[in-house]
Amino acid sequence: MAEALAEDVHRLLISPTSENFVRKKAALTLLRLYRKHPDVIPAAEWALRIVSIMDDMDLGVVLCVTSLVMALAQDHLDAYAVCYQKAVDRLNRLVVEHEYAATYAYYKVPSPWLQVKLLRLLQYYPPSDDPAIQTMLHEVLQTIMNNCAEPSRNVQHNNAQHAVLFEAISLAIHIDTNSPLVNTAAILLARFISSKETNVRYLGLDTMAHLAARTDNLGAIKKHQGTIILSLRDKDISVRRRALDLLYSMCDVDNSELIVGELLRYLKVADYALREEMVLKIAILTEKYASTYKWYVDTILELLSAAGDHVGEEVWYRVVQIVTNTEDLQPYAAKVVFEYLKSPSSHESLVKVGGYILGEYGHLIANDPGYSPIEQFQVLHSKSQFCMAPTRALLLSTYIKWVNVFPEIKPQLVNVFERYRHVLDVDLQQRACEFYALASRPVEDELLQNVCEEIPPFPPRESALLGRLNRKHGDTEDKRTWIHGGKEANLEREASRRMSRKPTLGDVNGNGTAATKLVISQDITNSLIGLDLSDSPVTTQSPASMPDATPQQSSAVLAEKGIPRLTAGPNVDRWFEKLLYTAEGVLYEDVQLQIGVKSRYHGHLGQVAIYIGNKMSAPLTSFTMTLHVPDSEALTATFTKIAPNILGSRTQTQQVVQVECKKPFKNPPIMSVSFLAGAHQTIAVRLPIVITKFLDGVKLGQADFFERWKLIGGPPRESQSVFPISLDASGHIDLVHQRQVVTGHGFQALEGIDPNPSNLVGAGILHMSVDGKVGCLMRLEPNREAKLSRVTVRSTSEDVAAEVQTLIQKPLGVDSMT
Predict the structure, then answer these.
(1) pLDDT of 8 higher than 80
(2) DSSP character string of 409-477
(3) Among residues 690, 708, 725, which one ends one of the domains?
(4) Domain range spanning residue 768?
(5) What is the dihedral of CA 81, 210, 289, 228, to 10 degrees?
(6) What is the pTM of this model?
(7) Same domain for 763 and 786?
(8) Does residue 636 share a domain with residue 552?
(9) Which of 215, 282, 391, 636 has the least CB density, counted as fewest CB within 10 Å?
């Protein structure tokens, strides 16, 4: 049924003729089908069309579609990445601009259910690097927090506001734990954890635990440590669980002894449903923040004594590992565990620890008063009758070790082996028989000594306790990028995110961080000087060998990455090539849209204004503009604001792209424009942002030019190509056009350099923020008789030389000339 219905339901959802009620039902039906049978839904293929409905005018439709997008995006993050921009835009319209119908205000809160879903959806993605989205989202979160500064007397209003507020705080923590928003959130949370309402206390503790797990500054949370500890005794078990999570997350070296001590005291009276998780967390915190090994042993043994049946195997395994690997701790551990075993009732986990530690290290304390071999045997053996078969098997191994080190109690130990030879349990019987045979061998036999050698230290390994805790939490449908108690993972992810975050561009007019043009000719000339390079013979590349990717090839690569296929056509290519050497012009045009470009560059920074006009008599809805930069480490390009979601009939909108060149790059950014005009349409075009846009011309004399030309040398710092050209009606070469192309690419056309007046010579400096400045020299040599032209570019960077040569050749070629 799911296979048969999915296409029809999707058609009803995206159809502009479907009523809103039908579209809401269709979205929820698709969600149900996807949860039951995800394979029948081509989620990635439908992504853009489904996400576009998040711009719908009806908030009921948006709410249902957002629920669907939340489920699909968690499994297809890249395909649904555009929903991030849609969610921020819708939140801005709801919270800041108050753009909603009165029927969707719930106790004066605009559609709180939709706000919560949108805020949660944003937490599935890493924070955006787009400054426009960052600014808009910051304003939304600030407004939400300001709205909740003063509580209302209306309970329903408070509930709706709190639902939105706590999700907003979680998003603020997800974006940046050191932001002023998070400081404001910490103040609000401190008020909530002392609230008289159970739900508010629960949400306050839950969100504060999230903050504690992500932040590296716990000062604001520690101020309320007493209140949090009191919450362990709250009347509601859900609140007690959240208090436990928070104490676990906020524990560090400074407060570990206090928190662990409180948890141990509370463990004795805690609910049975909480005890297993408490034991795991106490064991993890004790190991993680132990100031001394003695405190660790004391705490863990007290935990084993108090927790009883709620102690998992991982806990006592870990104690054994640490004691085995810490030689100075072994005598102390043996004494302490012996004292615990002397109590009338000892849990089986404690007996296991005692059996192992006394068997390995009991001889270290055997000469101390009260710890003689016979006393150790009597205390440990008195517990065996209350233990299960696996524990008694472990105690038999302890006894055979004692046979080797305590010959004075060998008769008592052999007697135990004798009696166990006749038990029904196969494992116990086999061990007893083998140990009895070993113990009966002559004293001078070295076999027993070799078998009972001390166990070597364990190899370094990760604690199994963390794995057990994570398994206990399990997996949920909500795949946000954080979990309680995952402080290390969260901090590591946060650090890597900060390291990869792109810097905000400065003002290209010279304010902020923008670099100023060099005006000292000597500095520019010096930057062209090559290093210790050899002068290589010039070689010529044929056109077939040029590394020039066609739009079709680029589209195939992009399609594999989920980027829309490039819109191709002779006019599109011609417009793009013309914009490579001009500052403004048409980039794309059809019967519906016209896209124009106007740009300016200064050093390694640039601004590109994009004008998009709707030529139709009907508005374009669900209008979206996105940028894809193939090599984000070499080039950054971001919009300064989010595009309007509706482009009115016969109107124009302007978007500004801030650009920064960091390193040499080959592929220009791709701008994708999608909209609804009867059907969903997507146009993807290359922006004319290429490496030569960051070239500044430089004047050189004939001697300086050829000195540097020879110094740079031939390949690989030279790139050369021979290609056909067209002649004008009179049979002459269009030198004016050639000069326009060369100067448009940033070179300074140099006069009187080449003896042939038809040849064109140029020089320039490429500006990059990371790799610095690189010199470029070029020669264009047209041949009228052969109808060929040769362009040669030499640069101190071989990547730059090849790319610049390719870019200049495109608008000079025969196709472009005609």
Answers:
(1) yes
(2) GHHHHHHHHHHHTT-S-HHHHHHHHHHHHHHTS-TT-SHHHHHTPPPPPPPP---HHHHHHHHHH---S
(3) 690
(4) 521-529+693-817
(5) 180
(6) 0.69
(7) yes
(8) yes
(9) 391
